[in-house]
């Protein structure tokens, strides 16, 4: 199988986890505390992948300063995009419900919020997918810990967000159109990460990896952990720690 197709399939697998989560939310009434617990666990897994895979790899190949610049740049870029989308109704796109101040708005409450939520979900998923494609450069392989982090974090993300969409009256066509489209774009992002950077200098690849890592860490802090803490409260730290430890063990193995 050509490597570029393999890259796309890995990206599709990561994005497909969002669809699985959405399917569960649509047909099963999952307790919100369970959703939040898995979200906290996924946060820990992603944090470990950022620290021990993405940042370490970037620093080893590109040096500390390019990695640091890319990392902060990725965080700032995500923050700016997220702030813009928040004003258009996507602030609580990962929320499964809650009170009026911390839930997704309906289209009647804020026109255009559906599109903003879809774009926000896409913003959350693209950096992860690009990293999966980059891992295959130079005859390499996809990092098992990064792949596990993407899949484990995407299932509760799709579950929580889809539950919130359903609660606000969005149709099945809209919900599964959003997540199915993001799964396809995730595949294209992973494919692009491999195809477009095949001849790029190691320093540039390191910077791009660090940019993705900064965006992912900011996404965890801004959207995943707040959603988890709203339901799991004092247990959030412990559950996140268990997720971190699992991903660390996978990376060491």
Question: Your description of this structure?
Answer:
The chain is mainly α and 253 residues long. The protein has 8 helices and no strands. The chain has helices at 3-27, 32-62, 64-90, 113-134, 144-167, 172-195, 202-232, 236-252. The mean pLDDT is 84. The longest helix is centred in the first third of the chain and has 31 residues, at 32-62.
Label the overall shape. Answer: globular
Radius of gyration: 17 Å
Mean pLDDT: 84
- The helix-and-strand class reads mainly alpha
User: Fraction of residues in helices?
Assistant: over 70%
How many extended strands? 0
The helix count comes to 8
Query: SSE order, as H and E?
Result: HHHHHHHH
Low-confidence stretches: none
